Amino acid sequence: MLEKIEEFEFEKVINEFEELSKNAGKVQEETLRKILEENAAAEYLQQVGLDGRTDSESFKQCVPIVIHKDLEPYIQRIMDGDSSPILTGKPIPTLSLSSGTTQGKRKFVPFNDQLFDNTMQIYHTSFAFRNREFPIKNGKALVFLYSSRQFITEGGLPAGTATTNVFRHPKYRKLMKGIQSQSCSPDEVIFGSDFHESLYCHLLCGLLNYNDVQIISSTFAHSLVQAFQTFEQIWENLCFDIRFGSLDDRVTDPITRAAMSKLLKPNPELADLIIEKCSGLSKWYGLIPELFPNAKYVYGIMTGSMEPYIKQLRRYAGWLPLVCADYGASEGWIAANVNPRSPPEEATFTVLPNIGYFEFIPLNETRNGGAEPKPVGLTEVKLGEEYEIILTNFAGLYRYRLGDAVKVMGFHNSTPELKFVCRQNLMLSINIDKNTEKDLQLAVEEASKLLIAEKIDLIDFTSHVDVTKEVGHYVIFWELSGEPDENVLKECCNCLDRSFADAGYVSSRKVGMIGPLELRIVKKETFYKILLHCLSMGNTLNQFKTPRCVGSNNKPVLQILCNNVVESYFSTAY
Ligand code: AMP
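# adenosine monophosphate complex -> structure
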């Protein structure tokens, strides 16, 4: 079906999605049957005694719920070049490398043609809905895309980030034709060897095409914010290059330089125009529509760990809508944003019932201390309830705990619309206290309100559990745009401590089993140093997510944080 999309047929894609979502239950059973049939010969499925059965009852009886660690020996064999049917009937051709920024460890997961097709289906579906609301005609897109290099495993398999694997797939260009506005930047910039250089050139390409740019996007909100923060610093250099048709010495990669030199010629009028636009802005508010007057929206993942960047992004985006990108993981896609007009805070993702088989572990029961509850099916989830997702896909993952918590906000026909809540396993915990990434985010949001009167922004934050003393305590690191009054920071610290409201934390604090929360203010650009460190470890900017809780095992990042502390405050809230 996918191969036929030459001219993008919006209505057809929307109608197909509507049909799938009307029959979500049936489609799920059928999808599971296909997955199990195609992979009946896989050693993994044979071992669990499925014996060729493809119904959901037998599947749930025989196949255990697993986490990545359980699959590592199988994945290792695939990486080492064993091409026998291990997890899938056909050999796995490629591996994806997850970001690991949330857990401190990168994971390899299988990638194959079916996952590529799922990606295209998600892209096509959300694009069809997005384009119905915000039609784009012959426009260009300023896409801050940084493709990492694929590498070869010991066993000869190519491996790279999931985005890179999709991007390098031989069918990618053909299937994106008609749905992707032409990127302003040439491939040499996207595949450039250094992200600073690529970012500089992306900005330059965007400015050269300023009148044609209709979409500004990146995978994550973080890299959009990062791009325009960089613009604030280097815009005069960019104008110089535009004026004289030259290219700054900071771009050293000869391939990138050669590609850029074809695009640059002296254009003093444009340089003057950009200077005029930038000079008229207050605190860079509305920078994006000012620079790109025909832009229709700003697009990227803005939910979950990206939420804290929305405020900074809105400053740059001004009146332009922020449109949330879809929900997936290196392990596979889950859901598309089919309500593109929803603001990021209310964004939901509608599950595509034919891209995998989905089960949901109810979290309320788990949190209330009961035994591990039974997972329910896609069409059995209840409105308003929170669940952890279990994924079965076409690339050898069976009943795999993705580790994400989601909330059911509604239904599109019979398939659920999910709100991303947080990563499940990310917890601040010393004894009986349990705080997730979301709890941390809410506490930080509450405390940072106290900075508004000081006209100071919170640039970024993370946390750490310090158990080096007899009584452990939470440490929150903040990077700020200015220097607030000491009393304000003391109050922020108390507010953070009070905002962790789970009963375990409050009672432990009251009896002194957890020590006073500590707020540590770090120097400007500390989080940028963390980003650079993660990139030096092989992460791409497209995949980077600030680690919201830094464990003692993540020594390099903890060291960067600790070495850059300028002040610290202990709470007196209890
Ligand atoms: P990775 O490990 O690099 O594959 O990242 C996958 C993880 O990113 C998912 O498991 C989610 O926790 C997070 N993620 C992906 N898409 C979204 C989204 N639209 N909203 C919030 N979080 C997301």
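# post-check
The first helix runs from residue 10 to 22.
The CA atoms of residues 246 and 517 lie 52 Å apart.
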